[in-house]
Design a protein that fits this description.
Helices cover about 60% and strands about 0% of the residues. It has about 500 residues and is mostly helical. The chain is globular, with a radius of gyration of 23 Å.
Length: about 500
């Protein structure tokens, strides 16, 4: 006699599997789209990098004593070198589709140079601009040696070998989320332009596209932020001009200014490591081997050296907004980024044409940042899939590093805005600048705290290795540990013997 029928089997709940490479990417590093689409996407990357390229000189050049002519020339130079440095990075550095552009990390030491007492007695604004620019050049040249040595010597390779998915989460996440001040606060300066742009971006990128057309008029009080003809770039830009080394004169050197700029260089090194990791993720590449990261940092040092030689008043790091654009378009092709570098060089030489695009209102860029920075931050959170989130050790490291990464820079920034100087205020200005620059960086503080705790807290416990997700990345610690690494990160031609991966 047959027994009772077994109860219906409930559907087994299975978590989402871990993915070394991000799926659903239309074109990865080595699979370029068709040429018409690649050119269009490359032009998009060019437009996105214009935001930082214009905003930084717009903030710095007037304080240096320069006018519209000087600002236009600095923008041209910064854009020209962004193209050159992007090509160097994609061909000889990490070989990732990473756009190299201006960095806000170098703004603080540059302002410190502007306020230096040795320039206060110069009356003529143009002469003052030239002297400050030469001082900035000298500081950048010295600061570039830090990344060149750390990168090409392999020292950074030895450090990043201990970077696990757990410690990468706060570093990468705050590389994107930490730039929230450049998002909606910028949109609010001209909300009638910026807010519709955000809505359109979300609609066209995330929902079924609809034809939306609306005409808005701006009140006079917001025209400074909304109108393109108020930037002064079109009138100040020459028709054709090729930037060249020492165009502002011979660089000058000051030990204190150089030390402050070296601190910014070190912070940019750490921040770029996080952004490189996000770029690799959104390009559907495998985790970046430490040797490749070290090589990329070395070439980023070369980029800062070129900034110092040409005179950009700013250093170079990986563009966070362009890393987010890889996610927005789902195209991580290296060829697309190299095409964008061609646009940067072309429009930097044809000054008038480039100035038209560079005069796009800042709130439009701020609206873009709301999406692009969010994507980079979410890319950092995606590494949580490799970690054990049920571990109290994991919860502590994540929570504490995120909280300190937001809280410590907030304290330094608030103190500076009220007092006019940072919390560290000794008689040595160079020392003050070093400490204030380092602890004002959200990804640096969060990444340092997470890295230290992850490599010191119960490190030798066998269960901890799996909790922190290091076993998932173990095979990528060596360049040839996984055959996919050689496909994504190999150098062109036969240059590996000059810049070996291991």
């Amino acid at each position: 006699m047959a027994g009772p029928a077994p109860p219906p089997k409930q559907e087994e709940l299975v978590p989402h599997p871990v993915k070394d490479q991000l799926p659903n990417v239309s074109f990865c590093i080595t699979s370029p789209p068709p040429w018409p689409e690649a050119i269009l996407l490359g032009f998009q990357h060019y437009l996105v990098v214009l935001g930082t390229t214009v905003l930084i000189p717009t903030a710095l050049v007037p304080q240096m004593g320069g006018g519209n002519d000087e600002k236009a020339r600095v923008v041209q130079t910064l854009l020209f070198l962004a193209g050159i440095n992007t090509l160097l990075q994609t061909y000889f550095g990490t070989c990732l589709p990473a756009v190299m552009g201006g960095s806000y990390t170098f703004v603080a030491p540059t302002i410190s140079i502007i306020l230096a007492g040795r320039y206060s007695n110069i009356v003529d604004p143009h002469e003052k601009f030239l002297h400050i620019m030469r001082g900035t050049q000298g500081a950048l040249i010295v600061a570039s040696t830090l990344q060149i040595i750390i990168g090409f010597s392999g020292l950074w390779r030895n450090v990043t070998r201990y970077l696990s998915p757990l410690s990468a989460v706060p570093l990468v996440a705050l590389a994107g989320f930490g730039l929230y001040e450049l998002g909606f606060p910028g949109v609010a300066k001209c909300v009638e332009v910026g807010l519709p742009v955000i809505i359109l971006l979300v609609t066209f990128s995330q929902y079924v596209p609809h034809a939306i057309h609306s005409e808005r008029h701006a009140p006079p009080k917001t025209q400074l932020h909304c109108r393109t003809d108020r930037s002064g770039l079109v009138g100040g830009a020459p028709w054709i001009r090729v930037p060249y080394p020492f165009q502002w004169g011979a660089p000058t050197f000051d030990a204190g200014e150089a030390f402050a700029m070296m601190a910014a260089s070190f912070v940019a090194l750490v921040e770029s490591t996080g952004t490189f990791t996000a770029v690799a993720r959104y390009a559907s590449a495998t985790p970046v081997p430490p040797s490749v990261l070290s090589r990329g940092i070395g070439w980023q040092g070369i980029a800062i050296l070129l900034d110092g030689l040409f005179g950009t008043a700013n250093g170079t790091s990986v563009s966070v907004e362009n890393a987010g654009l890889l996610a927005l378009t789902r195209v991580g092709s290296r060829r697309v980024v190299q095409i964008s570098a061609g646009f940067m060089i072309f429009f930097s030489i044809l000054g008038k044409f480039g100035a038209v695009f560079a005069s796009i209102p800042a709130p439009i860029f701020a609206a873009l940042y709301c999406l692009l920075f969010a994507y980079v931050g979410a890319g950092g959170l995606s590494f949580l899939q490799f970690c054990n989130l049920n571990s109290f050790r994991t919860k502590f490291i994540l929570g504490f590093s995120f909280f300190m990464g937001l809280s410590v820079p907030q304290y330094f920034n608030e103190y500076t805005s009220v007092a006019g100087y940072g919390p560290v205020h000794t008689g040595a200005r160079w020392f003050n600048d070093i400490i204030n620059v380092i602890f004002s960086s959200k990804p640096f503080v969060a990444g340092f705290v997470a890295f230290f705790l992850d490599n010191s807290l119960h490190r030798h416990d066998s269960a901890v290795r799996k909790d922190r997700g290091l076993h998932w990345w173990h095979k990528f610690r060596s360049y040839k540990g996984d055959p996919r690494s050689e496909e994504f990160y190999r150098l062109p031609l036969n240059l590996n013997k000059f810049f070996p991966a291991d």
